[in-house]
Specification:
Keywords: Membrane, Transmembrane, Transmembrane helix. The protein is an alpha+beta fold and 203 residues long. The chain contains five helices and seven strands; from the N terminus they run αααααβββββββ. Among the domains are: 73 residues; 58 residues. The N and C termini lie far apart (175 Å). The relative contact order is 0.05.
Length: 203
């Protein structure tokens, strides 16, 4: 029965005398500049200059972006001012036609209704109070109610039944004086007003 042997480079006679060339100059390789430890970080385990390189590259990239943005903003501002300048030139060369504004048409005034014309302005409160304070004008004799029912004609002793009251010449009814009694009438007087009442007449 055959047994398997372990393969090892250490005990292999082929590789014992074969020399593997190792390049000692590693500083010229581009990757060595990134991954090789710097002079300041030598002696510190696991420290590399990768962080410094990344920071420097990021700063350059940010600066380039800011510069590009500033250039674009400047171009946009210049374009805007050029557009305004060109627009003003076009206006002066080709002015817009004047459009006449439409005349303002006012509606015709409607006539007031007849009722509004006939309405009287109500008197003021002060005028009403003055009218109340003024004495009422005296009523005329003909406007008052008189009833002559009978006459007894006998010269100076004549009598009459006036408003159901027997009166003689010279008698007074309030401020009214019986001036004369005739055969068919009675003459009344009040101040300068004279009024005659006929028999069987009602006023």
């Amino acid at each position: 029965m055959m047994t398997a042997k372990k393969f090892s480079l250490k005990n292999n006679p082929i590789f014992e005398k074969t020399a593997i060339p190792i390049k000692k100059d590693r500083g010229k390789h581009p990757l060595n500049a990134i991954y090789s430890p710097s002079e300041k970080t030598k002696g510190k385990a696991g420290s590399f200059a990768l962080t410094d390189k990344i920071k420097e590259w990021s700063a350059k990239k940010i600066n380039s972006k800011i510069l590009a943005f500033g250039v674009l903003a400047l171009i946009a501002i210049l374009s805007f001012f050029i557009y305004l300048w060109w627009k003003e030139i076009l206006k002066t060369e080709h002015p817009a036609p004047l459009i006449a504004e439409p005349a303002l048409i006012l509606p015709e005034a409607l006539p007031l209704p007849e009722k509004a014309l006939l309405e009287e302005v109500p008197p003021l409160k002060e005028e009403l109070e003055k009218e109340k304070e003024l004495p009422a004008p005296p009523r005329r004799l003909r406007d008052e109610r008189w009833l002559l029912s009978a006459i007894i004609f006998d010269g100076a002793n004549s009598r009459a039944l006036l408003n159901r009251r027997v009166v003689r010449p010279g008698d007074t009814i309030g401020k009214v004086k019986v001036m004369e009694i005739t055969s068919d009438s009675v003459v009344l007087v009040r101040g300068e007003e004279i009024f005659t009442i006929r028999l069987e007449s009602e006023n």
